From TrEMBL:
InterPro entries given in the database record: Pre_C2HC_dom, Znf_CCHC, Znf_CCHC_sf
Entry keyword Zinc: yes
PROSITE patterns: ZF_CCHC
Residue ranges annotated for the CCHC-type domain, each copy included: 156-170
Pfam family, one: PRE_C2HC
Alphabetic keyword roster: Metal-binding, Zinc, Zinc-finger
This protein's name: CCHC-type domain-containing protein
Length: 193
């Protein structure tokens, strides 16, 4: 994050960097530095507006890249305790909306080992201060706790690389070995007909 609080954007391929940098210049996208990192270029934009413009440009030309989420776009995550595990996620969302938190994303947490639902619900919102005012949901007394940080590095479910998440990844999807074999068999079968 080169001191600006704006995450870098890792753009795949270095061969056409000069034409890409000209496109960025023509669009008025400012960046403090860019450096090669393997077969990619890591670009550090100056402002969140430049960051968003560059992401939009790369999306429009379908250029593979990955980045991280802007701090201002991150949602606060809290765990809701005190609700039964049979509670509907939609009921929780509706109750939160009626109490002034319309942007809430709610999901039920599951056990890592058994994969069974737990009586815990994860709520993501940009209004964490309003959550602190809430004492009841669906007429039940609840408490909100900060979600514990994982000790494991984040892994992208799209490209399988570590250090970023699927939400901000535009790299090619990496298939499992089984999916790769299945696609190869389908190609061979289609060519043999």
């Amino acid at each position: 994050m080169a001191g600006t609080g704006v995450p870098p954007i890792n753009i795949e391929g270095t061969a056409d960097w000069s034409s890409l940098s000209r496109m960025m210049n023509n669009k008025g996208i400012k960046f403090s530095k860019a450096r090669t990192a393997g077969n990619s270029v890591k670009v550090f934009t100056n402002t969140p507006a430049d960051y968003r413009q560059l992401v939009a440009l790369l999306d429009s030309i379908k250029r593979p890249f990955f980045t991280y989420q802007l701090k201002e776009d991150k949602m606060d995550q809290r765990v809701i305790r005190g609700l039964p595990k049979e509670m509907s996620v939609n009921d929780i969302k509706e109750d939160l909306a009626s109490q002034g938190i319309a942007d809430a994303e709610v999901q039920q947490m599951t056990s890592r080992t058994t994969k069974k639902p737990l009586p815990l619900f994860l709520v993501k919102t940009k209004m964490p201060e309003k959550l602190l005012e809430i004492q009841r949901l669906t007429m039940l007394t609840v408490s909100f706790e900060r979600k514990k940080k994982s000790t494991e590095p984040s892994q992208c479910y799209r490209c399988q690389r570590y250090g970023h998440t699927q939400r901000n990844c535009r790299l090619a999807e990496r298939l499992s070995e089984i999916e790769q074999l299945t696609r190869m068999r389908e190609k061979v079968n289609s060519h043999s007909k």
